[in-house]
């Protein structure tokens, strides 16, 4: 299902560029910084088997992915959040892998 | 952020920019939302978590708060609660930023005081719509509050006005003779300003006038009508006018000044202890009741007249009912508040309630007044606050009001050397009572003022003897019992209205001398004189016996159709009343 989603919606990025003007680069940096933080939180939570922390990190990451037009990553976060909520660490581990892959694909597209 | 459609432009550049607090722990979302809000023409302040949001709210007082639900340190739910609490009665919309879709979480937002939701990713159009909607709601709320404050202010000033009016009204309604021993009354505070009025005053000749009234309407409008009512009542009573004359004047005065729909239901009473008579006029109030010495119900005087201020002079009937009342008998009257009291079940206390109380106090009539009050408060469940109640106990016959002390300034009375004579013919006699006018003339002699009561009593007796026996040929023998009294006064009224011929001549001759002066009153009428039978009759005879007692000399001539009375007064000491 996540395969069918775009890694990024260019129309959203265009709208953000118009909205942020000179601060567009700042927005991209902020998102990257936040994404690194969330990925670290997700990994740590999974290692500690803290499904609640995992869910919260996925939830927060999901919000900003949505706003950035990163549809595939957003979907992956949603699945991670659901796994965290269900307390299913096996599903959580799978979802984290999907998130990491999606983020690797997304990174070069953000400009 | 959603990409659908172009970014909205600030639609209403005229509208003052709002200050919007954005609290989100996610820096990307915070950045985007903050910029979206600015793009809509508003100012933004940003918080990274709930605690910071609350302190920014206190510090900056934003107009709208956008709160993320899940944040570190303090979550959005707690922040919303604290913000709503600090906002007090101001409306500060709190919109939750959420991608939460579970109903439970949304319910939690509402319970924390949230007014709406904005879901991620943000849709600029929806954000704009929400901010505009909440701006309008805020403006309406502020309008509502300021109008409420205006109304509260006006209400407070209305209450102040009413309190002032009540002070004046209380003074008007409570001057006069309400402290007389023969009276007992209750006027609850609410009743008074509800248009109930109670007035009492003495005529110069000693009779007491009472007025119990109930204006339609409430508050100021009712109180305003009471002012002229009281003024006319006091002024005319003190000048010696009869109840009938006062009624005519009150009615026409109120009819002139009161707007349509406002009038005064009233009972007017004259108590004459000397003659053992009461005159009662009831226009629109509940029955006046007279109880015997054992508390038995003797008479009920039902309203047969229109209230004051309704009828034109031609249609207005000012004739009171005249009844014998022996010492110790008591008269009770009240306003609608008494019989219209309702209990919890909505039943009326009514006439029946009053009669039950009267019945229950047979043999102890002095308990009726209190009995009525406690029965009312029992029936009503709490002390009745809209009640006016009056009781008059007929005093002993020798009860006469103390003469009003008048300063003796007789120095100018040496110039009061005159004689005047008035002849009143049928038309004048039908229409008016000339005595107050004559009395004012007499009271221009300072030396006579201390005897105003006696003078007025004598004048009244002479005039009414001349009128009733001389001109109207009424037989005082009728006045032996109560039925006869009723007949007598009915006849008096009928014959007076039909009077076509006859005259009454009043002559007053005042001569000052070195010690003081001498006043000679002569009253002559066109009638045939009187027989001596009348003077034997109890009530009728009392009139002339009284004159003989009050005056220094009394003489009859022309078979009694001419009466001469002499008063002497002396400088330097107050004559006995």
Topology overview:
The complex is a heterodimer of chains A (111) and B (577).
Chain A: H1 10-20, H2 24-47, H3 51-68, H4 71-86, H5 89-106
Chain B: E1 19-23, H1 27-39, E2 43-47, H2 50-60, E3 64-68, H3 76-87, E4 94-98, H4 103-111, E5 116-119, H5 124-174, E6 183-187, H6 189-193, E7 196-202, E8 208-215, H7 219-238, H8 243-257, E9 264-272, E10 277-283, E11 288-291, E12 297-301, E13 321-324, E14 330-334, H9 336-339, H10 350-360, H11 368-380, E15 388-393, E16 418-425, H12 426-431, H13 435-442, H14 452-471, H15 482-497, E17 503-512, E18 516-525, H16 533-536, H17 538-550, E19 553-557, E20 562-570
Parallel strand pairs in B: 1-2, 1-3, 3-4, 4-5
Antiparallel strand pairs in B: 6-15, 7-8, 8-9, 9-10, 10-13, 11-12, 11-14, 14-15, 16-17, 17-18, 18-20, 19-20
Number of strands of chain B: 20
Oligomer: heterodimer
Report the total helices of chain B.
17
Question: Which of globular, elongated, flat, extended, rod-shaped describes the shape of chain A?
Answer: elongated
Number of domains of chain B: 3
Q: What is the architecture of chain A at the second tier of CATH?
A: Up-down Bundle
CATH class division of the largest domain in chain B? Alpha Beta
Largest sheet of chain B: 5 strands, parallel
Tell me the CATH topology of chain A. Answer: Four Helix Bundle (Hemerythrin (Met), subunit A)
